[in-house]
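Dear colleague,

Following up on Tuesday's group meeting, I ran the structure prediction for the two-component complex that the binding team flagged. I've pasted the input sequences exactly as they went in, so you can double-check that nothing got truncated or mislabelled along the way. The C-alpha cells for the whole assembly follow below. Feel free to forward this to whoever is handling the docking comparison.

Inputs:
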Amino acid sequence: MCAARGLTKSYPALRGRRGTPGTPEVRATDDVHLEVRRGEIFGLLGPNGAGKTSLVRQLTGLMRPDGGTVEILGHDIVRHPERAARLLAYLGQESTALDELTVSLAAETTGRLRGLDARRARAERDAVLDELGLAPIAGRPLKKLSGGQRRLACFATALVGERPLLVLDEPTTGMDPVARRAVWGAVDRRRAERGTTVLLVTHNVIEAETVLDRVAVLDKGRVIACDSPAGLKEQVAGEVRVELVWRERPPLEVPEVAALRDRVAESGRRWTLRLAPEEARAVVATVTGGAAFAALDDFTLATPSLEDVYLALGGAARQGLVRA
Amino acid sequence: MNQSEGEQHDVSVVPAEVLPGGALAVQEAAPQAAGLGPRARLWPALAAVYRAQLSRARVARIPLLFVATFQSVGILIMMRGVVDGGSEAESVVAGSSVLVLAFVALNLLAQYFGQLRSSGGLDHYATLPVPPAAVVLGAAGAYASFTVPGTVVTAVFGCVLFGLPMGNLWILAAVIPLAGAALAGLGAALGLLAPRPELATVLGQLGMSAALLLGVLPPERMPEAVRFARDLLPSTYGVEACARTFSAHPDWALVLGDLAVCALVGVVSLAVATRAYRRAAVR
C-alpha cells in the first residue's frame, strides 16, 4: 500500500550569525524502512522532534528525500511527487490556508481542488459536515472557532473527495472527547466500507494504544521498533511502572531511596521507575511505610504503556510523549 | 450523484478501538499501480480559489481596503494645495487611483504569500491535485478585483476635486485588470521568493512606497535618474494610461501601448510567481 525503503533526509548545518551559534547537520530521517498494509491504521509514534513530520512530508511528496524510495499503491512518489495528491488526503498541522474561510467554504473548496465537480463537492461537503457534527457551525470562519473545533473542520476538509489513503498529522490535538469520537468514527466507517488506509502521526501514547493496528516508534529519525501496540508492550511485559511524586524533594537521607536514585527518570518532583513486580512491591512498601512516607505526595503503580516501550528501546527524550 | 448520501444511512458506528487489531488489514494483493484520483482542471480550480480568496478578503481585508482608499483620498487632498490643474492634476489623480491597486495587489498579496509559505500553509494546496497556476492566478485575481471599489472611488473623487472630465473613466475597466495583473503577479512572486516572511513584507511595502512616490508626483518635476526608475516600475504604465485619457483628445495608440506593457509585465510576473510557487511547495 505505502512503502518506504532506505529513506534518508538531512537538514544542512547552519552557520551561526553574529552572536548566535550555528547548528550542526541534523539527520531528520535516517534509513527508514516502513510497510503500511491496505486497510490498517498505521501509526508513527515519537516525541516532538523525533522526525515524524519530516518523514510524513517525504511520504506525501512534500519534501524530496536525499535517498531511498517511497511507493504508494504502486506509484514511485520520489520520482513523481505530484501523484501523491491524487492518491492520498493529507491533514497537516497548519491551517493557515483555511483560517479565514467558513467551515462550509473550506470543505467545498478543498473538494473542488481535489477534482470534484461543483455539485459533487457540495453534496460531499454537506455529508461530511453532518457526519462530523459540524453543520451548526458551518457558516463560521475557522479563525473564530476553538482549537479543537478548528482541527475538526480541517479534518473534514481531508475527507471531502475520497482517497484510499488518509495521512493525518496529529489530527486530534486540542479536541474534546466528543470530537475525538467523531474523528475515529469517521475513520472507522471509511475503513469498513472502502478499505481506507490511515497513516497517523501522534505523540499521544493513549491514542496510539487504542486506535492503531501497528505502530512504528521513531527516535532521532530512526525507526527503533515496529509492531502492534500489544506486541510492543510484550517486550516490557515483565515490568511494572512505579511513579513517585515527592512533596518538595526526594528524601535522599533514607538509604533505600538514595539507592534508587540512579535508576529513575526524574522530571521535577516526579520519579518514574520501571521495575520487576517484586521489586516494585518492595519499593512501594519502603516509601509508604518508613521515614520516606512523610516526603511522599503521591504514587502510582501501572502496567507498562508504549511510553515504557519507547524508553526501554533506548528512546532518548524523557518528556515529549503525552498521555491524554 | 446520490452515492454519498446513500452511504450515510447504513454506516457502522463501531469505534475503531473496538475492532480487533489488524482485522481489516490485508496483505498487498497485486503489485500493479492503482488508478489515480481525478486531477482538478485549471479553470474550475481557478474559480474555486478565486471564490475562496474573495471571501477571505471580505472577512479579513475590508478595514485594509478602507485604509487604502483613505490613503489615496488623503494624498489627493494634500496635493490639491500644491497642484493647480492641467497635466499635473491628471498625473496626481491617475497615480492615486493606481496606488490603491499597488497597496492591495502588490503589498497585501506579497504579505499573504510570504506568510502562507513560512507557516506551512502551502502544504494544503501542494497536497491537492491542483495546477500551480490556478492557485497563483486565483489569489492574484481575487486581490485585484478587491481593489475595484477603492480605485473607482478615488478616481471619481479626484476628478471632482481637480475638475477633470469623467467621460473616459471607463478606461479603469482595462487599467484595473491589466495593472492589477502586473502588480499582483509582482506581489505574488515577491511573497513566494522571499526566504523569510518579514522580507516579503518589507519588499511589498517598498514596492508600494515606490508606486506612491514615483506614481503620484508629476514626472515633470523629477530629476532624470528618478524618472528612469519611474519607467522601470510597472504601475507607472497603468498611471500613464489612465492619465492620458483625461485630455480632450487622448492619443489612444499610446494608451494601448501602456496597457500592453502592463499586460506583458503581468504575464511574465505571474509566470515567475507560478514557478516560485512550484518551488516553494516542494522543498
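The CA atoms of residues 42 and 134 of chain B lie 6 Å apart.

Cheers,
M.
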